[in-house]
Design brief:
By secondary structure, this protein is of the alpha/beta class. The protein has a domain at 2-168 and 194-223 and 271-287: 3-Layer(aba) Sandwich (Rossmann fold). Helices cover 35% and strands 17% of the residues. It contains eleven helices and 13 strands. Strand 1, helix 2 (25-36) and strand 2 (41-45) form a beta-alpha-beta unit. Helix 7 (229-240) crosses helix 11. The longest helix is centred in the C-terminal third of the chain and has 16 residues, at 289-304.
């Protein structure tokens, strides 16, 4: 899948080196795509954690609680940086706190920061776009907005990318349906926006292909079809040809949910991708969960087949 993402972008890498801080799901996918262009990549992992490996990828240990937190060699020739690390327990950005001064000394051409569409807060199902004033209601979203603002004040060549729910191979409802642990929860008029991990990578590469003056400071990344989670679960069950669990009205079971799950259901908005797809001309590889789920199931079946 990575090679297909690269082929959809006009960006063919650059001189210098990419540093990806945060080697999780989205960071790893992006690092592999950049390395496929021929641009060398450093990608971080926690000391003692499992490093990301691959052709053209060099894993580096990053302990954000230790200053400077990164071996000096990991910053040699770095011209591009992607930050996927979430706020720390103190609500501050651990990368900016530990590496901000060092990054400011580098000849950076681009720094991408993956944030959340949660900074818009609850909009009762209305569409949100980049020109809307953020109004985060949840503590984790308030921390994200504070980190966005701290990065914006850094003076670095920053792009902030606001993401809704992320899915992709290994992060779809299939395993839960097979194991019988999925829950079909219905809350009237509730919708969620989503983005496939490959379209996160594709959109980032698309922006890197643009002249710097044309890269927006803030950009939503989302697909075309916000919808209820019951709709996506129903389609996943259709693909597996399995039964759905019984419907559970949200009002009846909300008190039994964890605080994190209740916070997930407490906000309702549709994330607009107009700037990305209309103004910047990015073509989504997976315009909705339907195309995305089909591709993910095929990929997961390939994994299972060895």
């Amino acid at each position: 899948m990575v090679s297909a993402v690269v082929n959809r972008s006009q960006w063919r890498g650059a001189s210098g080196r990419m540093l990806v801080l945060g080697g999780g799901y989205s960071g790893k996918n992006f690092a592999m795509a950049v390395a496929a262009t021929g641009m060398p990549v450093h990608i971080s992992h926690r000391p003692g954690g499992a490093p990301v490996v691959g052709a053209g990828i060099n894993p580096v240990a990053f302990a954000s609680e230790l200053r400077p937190g990164l071996e000096p060699a990991a910053l040699e020739d770095v011209t591009h940086v992607l930050v996927t690390v979430p706020p720390g327990r103190d609500g501050k950005d651990p990368v900016l706190e530990s590496l901000g001064t060092t990054l400011a000394s580098l000849p950076l051409q681009w720094l991408g920061y993956l944030s959340t569409s949660g900074v818009y807060g609850d909009r009762a199902g209305a569409w949100v776009q980049e020109s809307d004033t953020p109004a985060p209601g949840l503590p984790r979203s308030r921390a994200r907005l504070a980190c966005e603002q701290a990065w914006q004040a850094s003076g670095l060549p920053l792009q902030v990318f606001r993401l809704p729910a992320i899915y992709g191979p290994g992060r779809c409802p299939f395993n839960g349906l097979r194991s019988g642990t999925s829950r079909l929860i219905h809350k009237p008029a509730q919708v969620f926006s989503r983005i496939h991990v490959d379209d996160i990578t594709g959109a980032l590469l698309h922006n890197l292909a643009l002249p710097r003056a044309q890269r927006p400071a803030v950009l939503n990344l989302a697909d075309d079809r916000p919808c209820p989670s019951s709709e996506t679960l129903g389609y996943a069950a259709h693909l597996l040809n399995c039964k759905l669990p019984e419907v559970e009205p949200y009002g009846r079971i909300q008190e039994s949910l964890s605080p994190m799950a209740r916070s997930f259901w407490s906000e309702n908005r549709r994330t607009s991708n107009r700037r990305l797809c209309v103004e910047l001309g990015y073509q989504l590889r997976y315009p909705s969960y339907r195309e995305g789920f089909r591709a993910c199931l095929l990929e997961e079946e390939r994994w299972a087949g060895g």
